[in-house]
Amino acid sequence: MFKILxxxxxxxxxxxxxxxxxxxxxxxxxxxKTIEKLTxxxxxxxxxxxxxxxxxxxxxxxxxISQIRQTANYAHTPFILFSTKMELLVSASLHLRCCxxxxxxxxxxxxxxxxxxxxxxxxxxxxIHPDDAFQCRISTPKGMYNIPYNDILYVxxxxxxxxxxxxxxxxxxxxxxxxxxxxxxxxxxxxxxxxFIVNIKNAxxxxxxxxxxxxxxxxxxxxxxxxxxxxxDFLQIxxxxxxxxxx
Length: 247
Description:
By secondary structure, the protein is an alpha/beta fold. 32% of the residues lie in helices and 34% in strands.
């Protein structure tokens, strides 16, 4: 799974980037709001591409890029830099290597260029990791599970265990829900409740007449829930899926 880590964007641009990534298959979108969190995630995950907005904390972001470029893991990793200020992009281009630059706001032409760029990087990743592109690998004390992302309907927390509901049945794992939250791609696996993570690509109906809201899946009798505290973020995300049916 091609992992993109984004950092220091405001909410409106972040939502645009999420929609762009949804247009590309097999993208796992991660977010870090601080340099400290950014450093931690780069050390604990193998990130395949970084998105940064230079409008805030530009010097710290450039320092992070310069430092991480000196490590073997990230010597050639692509960095895509955004800003509303041309002078910040020009300055960064003079001091940083292997970077792409986008002046905000994102026009339709720029969005198309960014999609092509992501797909190019993702294509290179799939050539290097052909077996990892479309499945979730989960390691537990009982063994290794390889589950195609498209087969997962939703994930449910129950009695300190996690139940993965798939098109063919269920898989119970001795792991807390947050561990799966870290593994699953954020672009289309969305937390809708403190006990549920939903693959919105497999959701077919949203019933907003009930409390909590109920999400249904094709040819599967069990349902997932959307609690009040997750409703706003959930609605923003599913707006990208024009075929999602709701009341």
